[in-house]
Amino acid sequence: MLIVHTIADLKARLNDERVQGHSVGLVPTMGALHAGHASLVNRSVKENDVTVVSIFLNPTQFNDKKDLERYPRTLEADCRLLEQCGAQMVFAPSVEEVYPEPDTRVFSYPPTDSVMEGAFRPGHFNGVCQIVSKLFDYVEPDRAYFGEKDYQQICVIQRMVEDFKWNIEIVPCPVIREESGLARSSRNTLLSDDERLLAAHIYRILSESKNLDQSVSETHDYVVEQIDAIEGLKVQYFSIVDGKTLADVGSWDDAESVVGCITVYCGAVPIRLIDHIRYK
Question: What is the pTM of this model?
C-alpha cells in the first residue's frame, strides 16, 4: 500500500493507473478509522481496480476550534487498518498542501445545506464542499464512497456533483453500528464506557418511534421527550424531513422518502453525536 503526501505524487501515480484503464474509487475520511470506514473501503476495493483513501482532518469544516483540537488523530493505526482492507493508496496531505492559501469559494445548496447541521454549524457544509471538491479534482474518481451516518452530508455532496456535472458516482453505504445500536463514529472514542451505554439509547428510541401510529409532530415530540428524559443526554435538534431535499415534512405523505435526523449531546463534557432513521 502506497502512502502519498503531495498532490503531485498522487496525480502522477493515478495517471499511471488510468493509462492502464483502471477504475478508481475514493473514500474520503478525516482519520480515526473504525469498522464503518472499513466497510466503505471494502466495498470500494470490490468495485474498483484502485482504491484511494484520503486521511485529512479538514479545518474548514469545523466551526468550533475545540472540536477540531479534540478530534482523534491515529494515522499509524489507520494505515494498518487500510492495508488489511486492501486499499492500494493512502493520501495523507498536510494542511499546507491542501490549503496553500485560504479557500474563499462559497457553495450554497439550500435547503439541503442550510437546515439541521447547516443551521447549527454555520460554514460546516461549505468546508465539506471545499475539501470534497478538491479531492475530486485531485483523484478524479469513478466512484466516491460515503457513510450514511452523515446522511445530510451525502445529500449536500449529491447536490454539488449535480451542480458541477461531474461524472462521479456517489455511493452511499449503510451505517455500521455497535452491538448496542450506537452508530460507529470516530467521536465514540471520546466517550467513557458509561457514556457509550447512554448513547445507545439514541438509536433505541429512534427505532421505537418507527412503530408508533402517530403523526409527524407527535413522533417528533416522542423522540425528543424520551431522549431528554435520560440524564446525560440532550437533543440539540430532531428533524423529520424529505429524504432528498431535507425540507421539513408535515405529514408522512409529503414525500416519497422520509428520514428523521438527530443530533444529541452525550456526557458530562458533551460529545456531539449524530444519527438518523428512515421512516419510509
Answer: 0.94
For the chain, domains (ranges, CATH) are 2-173 (3.40.50.620), 186-278 (3.30.1300.10)
Q: What is the DSSP letter of 47?
A: H
Closest by Cα among 245, 226, 237 to 276? 237
d(Cα 85, Cα 14) in Å, to the nearest integer? 19
Q: Are 265 and 240 in contact (CB under 8 A)?
A: no
**How many angstroms separate the Cα of 233 from the Cα of each of 11, 12, 75, 138, 159?**
45, 48, 31, 41, 33
- Tens-digit pLDDT profile for residues 215-270: 999 999 999 999 999 999 999 999 999 999 999 999 999 999 999 999 999 998 89
Q: Which residue has the cell 481496480?
A: 49
Among the options 5, 22, 34, 37, which is catalytic? 37
22 is catalytic: no
